[in-house]
Amino acid sequence: MAVTKELLSTFPLLAPVPQAALEDLAQVAMLQKFARREIVLKAGEEQEHLCFLFEGRLQGVDFTIDGREVGLFFVEPGDFCGELPLFDSGPQPEYIVALTTAVVVKIPLVNFREIMTKTPEVLSNLSSKLAEKLREMAHQRTLLGLPNVSQRVCCQLWLLVPHNENEGENDESDTCAITNPPTHLEIAIMLNVSRETVTRVFQKLQNQKLVQRAGPTRLMVKNPKALKQLAEGLLEL
What we know:
Jelly Rolls
């Protein structure tokens, strides 16, 4: 599958780029497929490409001194990763791993820097996304400080609820879907708990009919309002 300007225009970060410039980017961009658990970007290495996720889900991970894997953030379709080398000459700070089969569009950093200098809206959008990521990672750190493990898991699930559905008041009869939800092990890595602990929390949520699996790629949240209250510590499982 060739990279076209039409494909590039589907990424929000590239929306302000003129068509002629998108055509130039399409000539140097490449599309790459990754299997589940395959490494997309390696920590400690110098990167030459900015990566845009077209299909699948990625996760940023790192390792503690004693070798434990720590989940940092997720990358959803339309998002990008590997952006820090745009601003300095340092190496990639964390590993980016494919959580599912993934399709990634890679654009050389040297070409993208030229776009940044000529299209201020791109730089503004990039800065906003970096700020959003920093806020998410700061919030992720606060989850690790919650003494109630069940609340931690519910908080992580609430963060995965689609953004336009987790704002405002949700009626108890509302139902929303988390597409390509992370596995119990992946959630455990994010929250520094065991996979068995996450599984027990999910069993309680399912027994109370708060969540329900709808195949391998969808998790239905049957009662978003109750999930939010569990995440905020207003209810207990």
